[in-house]
Amino acid sequence: MIDTLSGKLMKKLPTYALIDVNGVGYGVNIPLSTYHQLPQPQDIVTLFTHLVVREDEILLYGFSTLDEKRILIALISVSGIGARTALAVLSTLSAEEFEQAVICEDVKRLTGVAGVGKKSAQRIILELKEKFSAQVIPLSSPAPLHGEDVKEDAVLALVSLGYKRTAAQTAVQKAAATLGNTAGIEDLIKTALRTLA
Question: What are the tens digits of pLDDT across the range 4-15?
Fold first, then answer.
């Protein structure tokens, strides 16, 4: 599993980035939202990534935020929705806008995305509404002030990315021991992801 990628940005296009990591060039498929966050070529960039392995190809998807990665993983879990459609969603709606559209059953907003018809939108809502509604604190929320709350939020974030709770708790505890109890949620998650990788 490749959870993050950090290296020199060699090339950027609205749907693609080429990153040089110690002499190896990684081609990464990206949504427009991530494209707008990329630095200039030759600068260092870090992306959260998701690897998809198929019989005939291996594809790497990259995102500027964990929220975007979480949304892609959730979308491709819906029957009939592929990574290309998920990227189209993230290129049209922010992660927060997409979640709100699903929770509010806003079919019209979802069908405004290229490649998403009425039936697909209804299926997305049916399969993801309960999951999104159950997430009390989204990844983009500010971290609480108390150390234990921050750790728990980091664990919940990792669980929402597909990791088992016990593994997530262990990784977060290790990250907290390394960074200290005053670490913010984003730093905890990034460090924990490196441990899980």
Answer: 999 999 999 999
